[in-house]
């Protein structure tokens, strides 16, 4: 028999439970509809092309995801500024783009690991009407490692902060004023899914990418009413030199496939995993308590680290 005093409490639990279930159902329906809009209909996506301004600027543009953005924006008729370290690779990609898409290109040699490059970049961008900035350049670890055991730790900290964080802030400082003058422009910041959850054994990388994500979301809120879109792009694995994945698969797409999908989300999502299978992975991860996700990632990265050392021993 239930004690009379327990009855109001049971009623309260009933209503809290019912409201909780209703809220969960409404949230799930909202997410499903929002997902359908982005991934199935694609309606309302921003036109990322020359109407925003004649030029696109891409950092880390000679390989992987950056090269794919440069090519896709050129295919859409934009002139492209390519920025990377190697003049030879820049000239090669520039020629490829000019021949294939019949657009003007410009190359700027710069090492984002250094701090003193931005006056040179500013001079190189002088007078260009820039509609799209892709802050893509990034560096990760050679293999997952405990923070204090990272080879050349002091140098790595400096380089990773300069390349992954400073480049995004400084390039934005140089390009955003011109966009604001024309009240239009899109800044695409390539963060990483590892910035969505603390990623042990890639801690520094993950933390720099979390910075990029927060910076992008904050900036988007500050400037969206002025006609500027800032998007935080958070990919899982893409088959590039950095990931050391040679053969693309459904969940580890080629950079070209990834970029085509990601550009379809601009204007619909200010924070995106960019590609449907990655969005599903992000959704599953978001259901886990953070501590569980961290434990799973730690275990996985320990295994990757062990495999790396085994391979090194065999060499
Ligand atoms: N691939 C993935 O699975 C993955 C996943 C999540 C996020 N991301 C992010 O996506 C972005 C692109 O990665 P990716 O995989 O496409 O890399 P990638 O294939 O290794 O290409 C990196 C590009 O950046 C340039 N670069 C590297 N260091 C540079 C420096 N210090 N200064 C100037 N340019 C530099 C490289 O050219 P040079 O060597 O000639 O300079 C190259 O063009 C990065 O921000 C990365 O963190 C990648």
Bound molecules: NADP nicotinamide-adenine-dinucleotide phosphate
The side-by-side strand order for the widest beta sheet comes to 3-2-1-4-5-6-7
State the separation between the terminal residues, measured CA to CA: 73 Å
Tell me the domain tally: 1
- State the major sheet: 7 strands, parallel
Q: Quickly name the level 1 CATH class.
A: Alpha Beta
Number of helices: 9
Mean pLDDT: 95
Keywords: Endoplasmic reticulum, Lipid biosynthesis, Lipid metabolism, Membrane, NADP, Oxidoreductase, Steroid biosynthesis, Transmembrane, Transmembrane helix
Enzyme class: oxidoreductase
Catalytic activity: a very-long-chain (3R)-3-hydroxyacyl-CoA + NADP(+) = a very-long-chain 3-oxoacyl-CoA + NADPH + H(+); 17beta-estradiol + NADP(+) = estrone + NADPH + H(+); 17beta-estradiol + NAD(+) = estrone + NADH + H(+)
Pathway: Lipid metabolism; fatty acid biosynthesis; Steroid biosynthesis; estrogen biosynthesis
